[in-house]
Amino acid sequence: MMTPAETDLIREKVNLETSQIPWQELLRFFANGTAVSVSTELDLVEVAYQFSIDNKDQVAQWLKEQQIGKVTDEQAKTWLADDVMVWAVVVKPWLLVQQTFSPSPVTTSIDSITASSGFDGIKECTS
Length: 127
Prior knowledge:
Elements (H helix, E strand, L loop, with lengths): L3 H13 L2 E4 L4 H5 L3 E4 L5 H9 L3 H9 L3 E3 L2 H9 L3 E7 L2 E6 L10 H7 L11
Parallel strand pairs: 2-5
Antiparallel strand pairs: 1-4, 2-3, 4-5
């Protein structure tokens, strides 16, 4: 069991590795089936944290409630056509994405997101 300080440290790391990026830069993750959409009702950092500590029960609950799931073909097409910005964080092997609704002038390349991520995360997100 982790101490509160360890939990806070992991959450802080996840928060620092989260950034806004154009969806078009993430298409390779979608193509290989590792892009996971996170509902705007959820806190992306909390979802990434739960993935990083391998909390299968919580992830299963979100899947059941359809609050997370692999990015669908329709989502990917729409986001690409609309040039959507998403919040993204890598929790290996997954890329968690959450659509933004207001444009931001600050963007990050996917290489900087993946380079800083050291999480192994949950091995199977969906069946």
